[in-house]
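Target protein
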Amino acid sequence: MGAERAPILLGTRSWGKRRELGEIFADFDFAIIELDAAGIEYDEAEDQVESYATFEENALAKARDAAAATGLVAVADDSGLAVDALNGMPGVLSARWSGRTGSRAERDAQNLALVLDQMADVPEARRGAAFVCAAAAAHPDGREVAVVERWPGTLIRLPRGTNGFGYDPVFVPEGESRTAAEMAPDEKDAVSHRAQALRALLPRLSELG
């Protein structure tokens, strides 16, 4: 029998991401530990780690910080919505597109409303968008890997569905008639940008020992 795998630290506090990542990890032979269970208390400085210009840089920064704080291999992601008509924005600013005030649920609603307002005069043919996710893993010794995946689709004009979070209620994936928020969680977990990125990353964890 081989040696038991060391647990992987999940470097996020987002409830939506924790649920999605946990479901995806369940398909692989890895045990996960969350930040709170690892004794890492919330610090407002964590919000500043998403200050880089690309999803990959932000994901690596979060994984790197979590690994350094705990001595564990850490996995983290950074994701967001890239809208064609907005020149790829909100992009890395997706979670704070309308500002930083309010609860997460309030910010989600404000972000969604702002994007819909900005897209109000954009015709159907130009409403292309994609969810983008960078997933990264970092070892305390400095080794790290990262991958980036996209989930293309279009933006509708009015929200539909109550599953998911963030921009899910206005995003219709390519080949679908439902929004991401109308898909069952297990359906979304099988095909989303986050699922694609995690599934591409996890086989590479062997590079970190």
Observations:
- The mean pLDDT is 85.
